[in-house]
Amino acid sequence: MDFEVKPTGSGVGAEIIGLDVSRPIAEATRRALYDVWLDAGILVFRGIGTTPERHVALSRCFGDLDIHPVESVRIEGHPEIIELTTRGRNTPIVHYIDEAPIVGRIPWHSDMIYTTQPCRGALLRMVEKPPRGGETGWIDTAAAWDALPPAMKQRIEGLEARFDYVVNILDMRFGKPTGLRFGSMGTQNWGSFPPVAHTLVWTHPESGRKSLVLSPIHLIEMVGMPREQGDALLQELIDHTLSGRFTYMHDWQENDVVLWDNWRTMHTALGTPLGLHRVVQRTSLQGERSVGRVLA
Ligand SMILES: [Fe+2]
User: Fold this and answer.
1) How far is the CA of 57 from the centre of ligand 1 (A)?
2) Ligand 1 center to residue 270 CA distance, Å?
3) What distance in angstroms lies between residue 151's CA and the mean position of ligand 1's atoms?
4) What is the helix (H) or strand (E) element at residue 83, kind and residue range?
5) Centre of ligand 1 from the C-alpha of residue 2, in Å
6) How many angstroms separate the alpha carbon of residue 268 from the centre of ligand 1?
7) Along the chain (296 residues), what's the average pLDDT of each consecutive run of 10 residues?
8) pTM for this model (two decimals)
9) What residue ranges define each of the domains in the chain, with the CATH number in brackets?
10) 168 C-alpha vs ligand 1 centroid, how far in Å?
11) What is the full DSSP assignment across 234-281?
């Protein structure tokens, strides 16, 4: 094999060492990488993303890439890459956490879970690391499922929860960061989406592994269960999943790339202190899977 696989040290995810993306990646290597990804859910590539070309070449090992519908977030010459930056034209969303102003704080979620076509996965590359802050975390929700007591597994399989498109994280019902206070919602234009229902447990279409579907930003309530009873169940599952046992926190260096399987993980951005700069670029993998249902 043209690379080595090393545990991240956190108990979830894996680090890929020694992969050369300066030359075309052989099909056998690509296939082997893909299998490691399916197995681990989260892959860390330290220092590999030195150019947009290398970021895209690595991304293509894992599938076809999405072109973001909003042209202004794409980077010039690479329509597959979007940039998330504190140096942009829009005034950012600001929250206070324990009275410190933070930009770009995004609590635990899976991407696009408020739709019936959540994205397949993504690769995030650190372009400009802030002097402090800016960490990203991932949770392997397949590992969280595996660790549930058998009685709980039996109880929740087939049950549905409702997920809404929640823009202001102050409106979160579950897993809200402590010490959070509103600053401003920024100037970006946010879309709207009808509520959807997803089962609490997904079976991965490729690996066959089960995982928990929680995405606390968007999680509203259990479907068809009295609210008090549903809330108690969801809180128990969230406490279990967010306990830290299934979490990998990435301490970024510039040019690091982290890949995640959005069908079995959640992620969080801890945010950057207001006034410091952070620039990341991201590719997203296409996935044609439809899950859940739109609620009337
Ligand atoms: Fe996200």
Assistant:
1) 21
2) 12
3) 31
4) strand 78-85
5) 30
6) 7
7) 94 97 95 98 97 97 90 88 89 90 95 94 98 97 98 97 93 92 81 94 97 97 98 98 98 98 97 96 93 94
8) 0.96
9) 4-288 (3.60.130.10)
10) 14
11) HHHHHHHHTSSTTEEEE---TT-EEEEETTSEEEEE--EETT---EEE
